[in-house]
Amino acid sequence: MQTRIQAPRKKVSDAFAEIATSFTAETISIGALLELIGQQGMLAMCILASVPFLLPISIPGTSTPFGLLIILVGIGITAGRIPWLPRALLRREISASRMKQVLQSGAKLFRRVERLVHPRATYLVEGSVVSRLNGIALVAAGFLLMLPIPIPGTNTPPAWAALLLAAGILERDGWFVAAGYGVLLITTALFGGLAVAAFFFGAELNALLGAWLGT
Fold it and tell me: Which residue has the higher pLDDT, 208 or 174?
């Protein structure tokens, strides 16, 4: 029997705003952050994991753990069960002050999203086959987020794909899920083009990037 990740009892934006006021230490682990999110569930954590890459707030070294978190949640949705998270990931420490900024900004950002998202086109979020496909799409978004591409802004498209997919699945909004697929396809094409360009024009591309980044 498939296990469905339950919809939150309160708005995700309200939960983010409340959690931002609860930090007392200099750092917080991903596991502790998940405990604070609580009833909001793993999909809300996917939304939060995408926020740092959508706003001008940098938390160094988070693309790998946050991308991995999105991948594991996607695997859980695909398999129809609560995802397993490795202890090393749960123990990963993040700056509490930076995370507070992310939560506050994420609350403002997601309030705008919540005005638009609501149950519709539910055939894109219901059923075992559709759920597996949506889980695989989340896995792909997390994987693209983790890729070490040395170009500013390349984390933003897969982060938008993850946010749209997670919000759509959470709120049973098929339009948001479809938009997530669209952004994911565009991101895949963009990264594929970069890979082809790097293969054929590696030296020239490195020189161009070096000049652009001032190195």
Answer: 174
